Amino acid sequence: MKAFALTRAKDNAQAIATAAKATTAQQGAEIRFIGGGTTLIDLMKLNVEQPKTVIDINRLPLDKIEALPDGGLTIGAVVRNSDLAYHPLVRKNYAVLSEAILSGATAQLRNMATTAGNLLQRTRCMYFRATDMPCNKREPGSGCAAITGANRSLAILGTSEHCIATNPSDMNVAMAALEATIHVRGTKGERSIPIVDFHVLPGNTPQRETVLEPGDLITHVTLPPPAPGSRSLYLKLRDRASYEFALASAAVVVTVADGKITRARIALGGVGTKPWRSTEAESELTGQPVAQAVFQKAADAALRGAKPQSQNGFKVELAKRCLVHALKLATQTA
Amino acid sequence: MLAQARSVSTVFAQRSVKEPLPSSASKDAVPVTLTVNGKKHDLRIDPRTTLLDCLREHLHLTGSKKGCDHGQCGACTVHINGRRVNSCLCFAAMHEGEEITTLEGIGQPENLHSVQAAFVACDAYQCGYCTSGQIMSAVALLKEPCGPEDADVKELMSGNICRCGAYPNIVAAIQSVRQNAKPQKTG
Fold first, then answer.
1. For residue A130, is it within any domain?
2. pLDDT digit string (tens) for A95-121?
3. Interface test with B, best of A7, A38, A43, A45 (most B CBs within 10 A)
4. Are B39 and B99 contained in the same domain?
5. What is the tally of structural domains in chain A?
6. Nearest Cα to Cα of residue B101 among B125, B82, B86, B87
7. Among B143, B29, B2, which Cα is nearest to A82's?
8. Which residues in chain B have Cβ-Cβ distances shorter than 8 Å to A34?
9. How far apart are CA A208 and CA A138, in angstroms?
10. How far apart are CA A319 and CA A235, in angstroms?
11. Cβ proximity of A250 and A323 under 8 Å
12. Which domain holds residue A287?
C-alpha cells in the first residue's frame, strides 16, 4: 500500500474544503473520504486506489435514520448497512431495502459499510482489481481485458466497447426501485440527485462512475414515502447461498388493486453497469392484470437491450426468470 | 465451466501486493491511543497499519489471525464497541477512543466464554486457524437479530470461512449456547 496522510474531518465544511483540492472525485482521486473502508482499504491494498490523503468522515454528524414529515425516510451517509437493514421503519416500509442489504456481504462487512460507501461501491471485475492487466476504468486507454476474457460475472446492460464492469451493490438496486434521492454538499452548495442520475454509464469514460466532483460529500439519502398498498421485495440469484455477488437480482415495488397492477417500480442488479432501473418493464406492468404472461412481457422488455459477452449469455434468461419470479412473489395473495 | 469458476475464485482470493509491513519508525507515523480489551495503549504507527497488524505486530495479541487480508475469510474478526468487524479492513488510527475486543478479551484458558466452551464440547474446529474469528463472530451473533434455525446461523456466519469444513460442528456449538442462553434470559 502506498503511503498516505490520514486526517479526521472536524465538520462537513472542512471535509469538503480538503477534498476539493483533488483533481477528480473518480478513479485516481488523490483525496478520498473514508467511511467503513470495506472497499477503499481493500483497493488500496491492491494499489488500485492510491490516495495521498484519506479523510475520516466517520465522526461527522451523518449517522442518523429519521422519519420525514411526509412519511419518507432520511438516511445519513455514515449509517452502517446493518443499522439500516434492521431499522424498524425500513423493515416495515421498505422491505426491499432491508432484504437487499442483508443479501449482500457478511455481518462483519455490513457492520462497517456505510450508506454513502455502498452507493460508491466499486466493481468486482477481476481485471479492475488486478493492476497487471489492462482496464479502461482503472487506467483509461489501456483496453478492456474483460471483453475478451473471463466475463461470466460481468454486465449485459449499459455496457460499452470500453467497459463491461458490473455495479456490484445490492443496496443500490433497492434504492433505484425506491426512487431514492442522494443529497450532496460541495463547494457550490447543496444539491439533490435522483439515484437514476447519480451513477453514469461507462461509455468512453469508464473511469467516471458517478456525477460526483472534487469536494462533493454525500450527506444523506432520502426515500419517498412508501406507495400506499405497495409490496416490495428483493430476489437475488448467485453461485452460492451466502456472501456472493448477484449473477442477477431484482428489486420490485408493486401495488395491486382489484387484480390489476396499478404501480410498479423495477430495478435489476448483477446485470448492469449501474443499478438498472427498468422503466420499460414498469410500463409493461402498469394497468395490466397479475399474470405470468404479463410478468414475462415485462422481463422481455427489461432485457431487450442486453448485450451478452462470450461467457455471460446465460444472464439474459436468468435475469428474466429472476424478475418474473420476484413479481410472482410480490403479487401473490396470502 | 469448472475451470472458469476456479479462475474467478482465485482472483477473489487475490493477495495484497507484497510490500513490507509499514514500520512504526516511519516518518509518517502518527500517535494513537487504542483501548484493547479494556487496556489503553499509546502507540506510534504508520497510518497504513491495519487494526489487525496493529494488534498482532504492535500489541502482540496474536489471537486474531490473518487469512485473506481482504475481508473475505473472517479470521481477523474482532469487536469494535461490541460489534464484529474485519480488523484487516480497518486502519488502526481511525479507532481511537473505541472499545476494541479481541479473542484474548472474551475468555482465558481457565475462564472460557460459553462460546469457547461450546466449541470445545462440540469439536467445532480441526486446524484451528479460523477458530478465533469464528468465536468472535459467534459471540457477536448472540446479540444480533438472528432467527432460531440452523440456516439462520449459517447465513449470519457466512463471513467466517473454515477450510477444514468444520461447519456442522460450528453451527452446533453456536446453537447449543443460544438454546441454553434462552431460558436464563427469560428466567
1. no
2. 999 999 999 999 999 999 999 999 999
3. A45
4. yes
5. 1
6. B82
7. B143
8. 91, 94
9. 10
10. 10
11. yes
12. 230-331
Of B70, B137, B160, nearest to A42 by CB-CB distance is B70
The beta-carbon neighbor of B70 closest among A45, A47, A126 is A45
Spell out the residues 6+ positions from residue A266 whose beta carbon is closer than 8 angstroms to its own: A177, A250, A251, A252, A253, A277, A278, A281, A282, A285, A298, A302, A323
Does residue B8 belong to any structural domain of this protein? no
**Which phi and psi (to 5°) does residue A297 adopt?**
-65, -40
User: In sequence order, what are the beta bridge partners of A263?
Assistant: A255
Domain that holds residue B91: 24-106
CA dist A164 and A183 (Å) reads 28
d(CA B58, CA A73): 43
Asked if A9 and A18 touch (Cβ cutoff 8 Å), the reply is: yes
Q: How many residues does chain B have?
A: 187
Please count the structural domains in chain B: 2
Q: Do A4 and B47 touch (CB under 8 A)?
A: yes
How far is it, in rounded angstroms, from Cα A57 to Cα A70?
29
Dmax (CA) for chain B in angstroms is 57
Q: Which of chain A's residues have a Cβ under 8 Å away from the Cβ of B83? A: 82, 111
Is A153 within 8 Å of A124 (Cβ atoms)? yes
Average the pLDDT over A7-13 and give the result: 96
CB-based contact A268:A276 (threshold 8 Å): yes
Nearest by Cα to A276 from A256, A258, A301: A301
Residues of B within 8 A of A90 (CB-CB) are: none
Contact call for A3 and B140, based on CB within 8 A: no
* Mean pLDDT, range B59-75, rounded to an integer: 98
> What strands, in cross-sheet order, belong to the sheet with B30-36?
B39-45, B30-36, B99-101, B77-80, B83-86
Task: Please judge whether B28 and A131 are an interchain contact, meaning their C-beta atoms are less than 8 angstroms apart.
Answer: no
Q: Which of B51, B91, B139, B153 to mutate to test the interface with A (most CBs of A within 10 A)?
A: B91
**Chain B residues with CB inside 8 Å of A311's CB?**
4
> C-alpha grid cell for residue B187?
428466567
d(CA A192, CA A179): 12
Judged by CB atoms closer than 8 Å, whether chains meet at A130 and B70 is answered as no
Q: Is the pLDDT of residue B18 over 80?
A: no
What gap in Å lies between CA B170 and CA B116, rounded to an integer? Answer: 11
Q: B38 and B86 in one domain?
A: yes
CA distance A228 to chain B (A): 28
- Length in residues, chain A: 334
pLDDT band at B28 (very low <50, low <70, confident <90, very high): confident
Q: Which residues on A lie below 8 Å from B20 (Cβ)?
A: none
